[in-house]
Amino acid sequence: MKNKDAALPEQAKNFFESLPAEICGFKLKKIFSEDEDKFIYFTFEDEKIHRAATAYFHEETSEFKVRVKIGLTEFCLTEFFTKDFEHFGELISKNLEGVIKNLSADKDLNPLVEEKNFGDWEYGKNLPKNLEGFELFISPKNPFPFTNGSHVIINYSDFENFSDLTIYYNVYGDNFSGETRIKNVPNVIYSFDSKNLKELESKLETNLISELSAIKNAE
């Protein structure tokens, strides 16, 4: 990292020293080290449920950011983006606890997702808890908001090998799509593209085992 001074303004260490040791079962890990073009300050993580929130400085954009991790999926929370550390500290103080509370429990869903009532989907209720060496990490009864209107409704994960398969529902397109991850490298797939649950059910019946096997064979 070239611009380490920007990543470590004068008030940074003092501010992060005041963080609580734990929030909602998520334990604080102070890191203060470089990771490629990022400088990581800290992570609050609950290893048992594979969820975490991380604060860092991103040299490429010269911004302070927070990203969350759910299983093997990570994404940034745009409401924390700022180039000013003082503002970043205010955002952390005001909003981080709420972010972690949402990670630790079922999160409020988009009303359009609530209307779909995936929890009553009979096929979804009977998905195997373990399949081809993967565990059912997210099931249709507990969908999780992702980005750009997408919600994870199914996720099978192999945490040891950093691989998974995810099915998304998008509220804007009112459709379903899939993605695989092999050794932490995401790949868009089309074998689960569907316009409704009946179509998705048919494609899961036909393709779920073969897609998971393909991931396992590629690991």
Helix/strand layout:
Blueprint: H1 4-7, H2 12-17, E1 22-23, E2 26-35, E3 38-46, E4 51-58, E5 63-70, E6 73-76, H3 85-104, H4 111-116, H5 122-125, E7 130-131, E8 134-138, E9 144-145, E10 150-158, E11 163-170, E12 175-182, E13 185-194, H6 197-218
Antiparallel strand pairs: 1-2, 2-3, 3-4, 4-5, 5-6, 7-8, 8-10, 9-10, 10-11, 11-12, 12-13
Q: How is this structure best described in words?
A:
- This protein is an alpha+beta fold.
- Helix content is 28%, strand content 39%.
- The chain is built from 6 helices and 13 strands.
- The strands form 2 sheets. Strands 7, 8, 9, 10, 11, 12 and 13 form a 7-stranded antiparallel β-sheet that branches. It has a 6-stranded antiparallel β-sheet with strand order 1-2-3-4-5-6.
- A hairpin with a 4-residue loop joins strand 10 (150-158) and strand 11.
- The protein is elongated.
- The two termini are 31 Å apart.
- The model has no long low-confidence stretch (mean pLDDT 91).
Globally, the shape reads elongated
Task: Indicate the structural class.
Answer: alpha+beta
Number of strands: 13
How many H/I helical runs?
6
Task: Give start-end ranges of low-pLDDT stretches.
Answer: none
Element pattern in H and E? HHEEEEEEHHHEEEEEEEH
User: What's the pLDDT, averaged over the residues?
Assistant: 91
- Rg, Cα atoms, Å: 19 Å
Largest sheet: 7 strands, antiparallel
Helix % is: 25-40%
Q: How far apart are the termini?
A: 31 Å
β-strand percent reads: 35-45%
